[in-house]
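Morning!

As promised:
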Amino acid sequence: MTFTNVMKKNKLMAIVASIYLIIFVLMPEKAAIAVSNSTYYLIEMVQILPVIFLLTVAIEALIPKETITKRLGEKSGFLGNILSLLLGSLSAGPIYAAFPISKMLLSKGASVSNIVIILSSWAVIKIPMLANEAKFLGVSFMGVRWVLTVIAILIMAWITEKLVDKKDMLKAGTVETDNHIAINKDYCIGCGICVKMMPQVYEIIDQKAHVIEAGIKPCDDAMIQKTAEKCPTHAIAVKRKGGAVA
Ligand code: SF4
């Protein structure tokens, strides 16, 4: 992979590195402060994120997709909103820790509106935060703010659900791979062989295999090819991006 390709695939990192370079040349003393602050946040993230990733993997393994779809999905209704509010309010840790968990819940069937509720309540109405708020600013202030914030969160969740496409959210942060997987639904008999081989890439919905785009990683290319070969009805086609069949 050439340097240009690496830069293209990591655009945000390339922009940040360029900004740092410019600051180092033009304002070295400010650059030193920026490095010190970045180091502080990096250390904090290194301490917290492994725990969050372990928690995410544990939830992913222990809670079936059907449960998350039923309790937090598009059809979960007001009860789903309440559960999301509770999940966010009972959480611990900084808000960036909520993003991998939210992504996992989204990929397992949670609705966009419930993800907005979890993230927003995690950020602004966590229970330890409310307790401190009541102590310093009074119970009535905390109570009124809580009620108004919950109303605002529910409105935001409803609007975001209407404006944002869940597929775009699932694609965000995924790494571009060389291959594209297509499943011919007319051929698929829902035998589940592909799911057994790569549960992170395939899932069965309504007795047909579907591709989980967010689960595909560049290092999976060989295994993906094997799933296509093992599929008894040749329903899986793996195509090189650009058109040719791999
Ligand atoms: S292996 Fe083929 S037929 Fe079986 S579920 Fe997967 S795509 Fe469908």
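Residues 3-61 form one domain.

Hope this helps with the figure draft.
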